[in-house]
Amino acid sequence: MEINGVKIQDTFAEGFGIKVSRLIITAATKHLAKIAATEATGFATSVIGCPAEAGIDQYIPPTESPDGRPGYAIMICHMAKKALGEQIMDRIGQCVLTAPTAAAFNALESEESFPTGKQLKFFGDGFETEKDVNGKKMHVIPIMSGDFLVEDEMGWKDGVAGGNFFIMGDSQMTSIVAAEAAVDAIHAIPGVITPFSGGMVASGSKTGSKYSFMSASTNEKECVTLKDQVETELPENVFGNMEIVIDGVDEESVKAAMKAGIEAACQVPGVIEIGAGNYGGSLGPYQIHLQELF
Amino acid sequence: MEINGVKIQDTFAEGFGIKVSRLIITAATKHLAKIAATEATGFATSVIGCPAEAGIDQYIPPTESPDGRPGYAIMICHMAKKALGEQIMDRIGQCVLTAPTAAAFNALESEESFPTGKQLKFFGDGFETEKDVNGKKMHVIPIMSGDFLVEDEMGWKDGVAGGNFFIMGDSQMTSIVAAEAAVDAIHAIPGVITPFSGGMVASGSKTGSKYSFMSASTNEKECVTLKDQVETELPENVFGNMEIVIDGVDEESVKAAMKAGIEAACQVPGVIEIGAGNYGGSLGPYQIHLQELF
Amino acid sequence: MEINGVKIQDTFAEGFGIKVSRLIITAATKHLAKIAATEATGFATSVIGCPAEAGIDQYIPPTESPDGRPGYAIMICHMAKKALGEQIMDRIGQCVLTAPTAAAFNALESEESFPTGKQLKFFGDGFETEKDVNGKKMHVIPIMSGDFLVEDEMGWKDGVAGGNFFIMGDSQMTSIVAAEAAVDAIHAIPGVITPFSGGMVASGSKTGSKYSFMSASTNEKECVTLKDQVETELPENVFGNMEIVIDGVDEESVKAAMKAGIEAACQVPGVIEIGAGNYGGSLGPYQIHLQELF
Amino acid sequence: MEINGVKIQDTFAEGFGIKVSRLIITAATKHLAKIAATEATGFATSVIGCPAEAGIDQYIPPTESPDGRPGYAIMICHMAKKALGEQIMDRIGQCVLTAPTAAAFNALESEESFPTGKQLKFFGDGFETEKDVNGKKMHVIPIMSGDFLVEDEMGWKDGVAGGNFFIMGDSQMTSIVAAEAAVDAIHAIPGVITPFSGGMVASGSKTGSKYSFMSASTNEKECVTLKDQVETELPENVFGNMEIVIDGVDEESVKAAMKAGIEAACQVPGVIEIGAGNYGGSLGPYQIHLQELF
């Protein structure tokens, strides 16, 4: 199967469950909203070494946002419910409450939720009040620079982590530029994030290592600079390789994101093949076959 | 004392000790370097609720960077040495090693250091090598998209946290714009960061609360929307109030940053007074008097 | 009439006719598309002293763009048809053809058009070819770095210039931040641009001057720093004043943009009144009454 | 000759004279200064089809700027003195005077100058005043949103246009990323601009054409997609080719920029050769030999 001359491998991405919250951070301007959303979703590429997986889902213009101000939908994800609740509290409390003109809204319809606003309000020391904003129950906390508004509860649900695909190109830079194009496209799909730096992963790993104390290590068979030293899995004409990793609110969102991202990557001259990462189906309950996306 | 018609209060910022590392993150382009540096310094406004305090110190052009590529000097800070070492390992390992074309260099002359590169190299699973880059001992770790270079050791030293000043203006937006100007100026001073979102703090706090379970709460006497409800400390004509918080590699850097930031803030029309936060000198060993900066 | 406590004056914006083209500039990434679109729409705030009025209308994600790549819809406007055609040729030929990976598509359904691609193709010196891209007739011009694609014809139609409103605030910075919020909102409305720097005008003018050689000069009655020197038209509590000027493909688009912009501006704390500029109805055929927008 | 394994061709860039002005545009924040500087230098890639060549030279932090506010040094260039003076007047008058909080300073020591501020002040309609700002004679023009300050005279001098080099890579994207790195490096050199979109030229041209009505056309021998159709000048393993074009205040600045740009480009994996464009020495008085730069 080919898209725009790019071979789509007959393989699948293997995903697994993760608990997901989706919030909208608004502010006086798009510029200020992005600052708060970026800080709140930083240091969150992978739960392996970060306290959460998080990222900006998409920009919400004033005409569509809960309070008529520009905002960014963000997602915060964790394997454990308790840790997710704590991360939301810490990231909102430390990075959004403290940010100029910011407010935080729930942006997920869900059965379960965390009492984020309900607890954060106590920072108001008795000066906090309540306000209805377009049907949402908001706590108004007076802070030094004005009022911080935070929704009473923040929803969470079972989502899907580990959606992924590989962009193999004729050079390292081709794969990077194509990965950037893929991330641009994925931002048009609501309900997904690409939590790594710039939305892309430069360092795929394998489980295990020759060093007994390492549980994971570089996947040398996918490394472009080791093609001559190892039994590579890279096609002969491939010299660039970047992975896109996707977390979503559900499998449909992850599929839509993979489809949009792959189609965009295939528009970049020099992209040769699209692959995906899996563990033979042994690890995760979700198998998203690339060729079935189109 | 006045600067450009703005009153500089006769008060001081009270700082305390913190352990500081300073690194340079380089990449193929300024755009890519910023992406890695931003992710690596996210979720790091205050050690009260974040795993570290971190931020971008300043842009390092290719002509001045350790490997001839554009980079950003970043700082990561923590009260505890052990936690600082772990944060550097996690933030470099999760947010920089994984980022496209990024590399990580030590940027601090210090007596003590963490073995960040020395340990991270094992991710290479035996394919890692060593390389001298302009006198620096770098580990070359082959990753999927190319090679990741990380310096053998990352220095740390005793620095200063809690440098601060308040920008009081004739409106909320005046204080925000002036705070942005202050942060712009502070980026010109090497060795300091303003770790909060956008470099500014919208929510100053006081210790204690009417709620017994809260150890800190909003500082109502500094809140612009509570002027009519409480015994305010804000001048009558002040309706905006933003705080700049600064961490630095030493007291001199923090002083230089406060000076540059205050001078820049005073150029914004509508700024009325500059104050500072302290605990009467009871908490921190550093007392930086505003009027002595000029 | 009030919106969120902000008085909407009982006045109208006076618009006039202008000839408008709308194009989509795509590129390999959003980053590269913005670079080309920004250069192509620069030096174009007002036809009084610029060769055109131009600006970015909105971002077009890969999932919605004519070639599956990220793009920006831009608009270029001029009073004279001939001059508009030349401006499109020059701006595409000098700023888009020359830009990395860029392509230019028509984005206007119209009865009349300019033969932009039809003429630009000759740059290919005989190596140019034709290609159908999703039903669009594109010329493929080999250039140094790859192929430049440009659509055969670029449509133009009679549009509306001079949509406007004034944002009066309690400080200069309030009006600037609110104007930025307004521009953020207007970007969500297709078919309009705000051609001035940052989308806002800091310097409203009146016709005539005490200097005989000046046909226009500062409108002192609207100047915040002249309130004490002249018979001001500004309310007593207003100390900031910014204008948003809008060009659109038709009156409905301009109205929608004014509505969205005003609503967003009214969310910024410190905004006091919204006004509009007109010449008593003597100059332009379009009268857009503020209060009728809501 | 090689730099980091990249062949530096034994050739030279051929430059010619151009008249150059250098200004600093300051504003309340870096963000606002960039907006004004970008608009004022847009539509200015080449005097062949644009009214000027212009671009941002470099960022000037508040600590180094003429009025203590963040700014951008920009350059505006033209072959003809009269046209240059008009361009400065139009670009300052239309794009900077109209921009929020902006001011315009001369940033060139020169023997000759244009009376830009001296003439622009009349927009003040009698309300204009004069002010000394750190030794500079500024005109203060009250505008709607505050005061616009512009320096009395803007200097100009004979500079050098047409500094250039070619970045040939193993793919189109390699050359683009390397060109971006080169532009990042060049921004560290004061007194130069790279006037094309994103600082790079995707479309080198030759004089003449098979079409009699075209005086210039695509340089097919440098086109990566025509390698199989024409007698190419590109090395066999080169599939990407981008040009950097530089204008400078003098030959030394252009040389320093070429050196910095080439060194940065050579750090990007996949770059193969660096070339330069000339007309055999017949056209321009400046011959800058690549290998003599190092």
From TrEMBL, chains A, B, C, D:
Give its localization: Cytoplasm
Would you identify the family this protein belongs to, as annotated? Belongs to the FTR family.
| Assembly mode | Homotetramer.
Q: Where is the Formylmethanofuran: tetrahydromethanopterin formyltransferase Ftr C-terminal domain?
A: 146-293
Chief localization class? cytoplasm
Q: Which reaction does it catalyse?
A: N-formylmethanofuran + 5,6,7,8-tetrahydromethanopterin + H(+) = N(5)-formyl-5,6,7,8-tetrahydromethanopterin + methanofuran
Q: What is this protein called?
A: Formylmethanofuran--tetrahydromethanopterin formyltransferase
Involved pathway(s): One-carbon metabolism; methanogenesis from CO(2); 5,10-methenyl-5,6,7,8-tetrahydromethanopterin from CO(2): step 2/3
Q: Which InterPro entries match?
A: ForMFR_H4MPT_ForTrfase, ForMFR_H4MPT_ForTrfase_C, ForMFR_H4MPT_ForTrfase_fd-like, ForMFR_H4MPT_ForTrfase_N
> Does this entry carry the keyword Glycoprotein?
no
Classify the source by domain of life.
Archaea
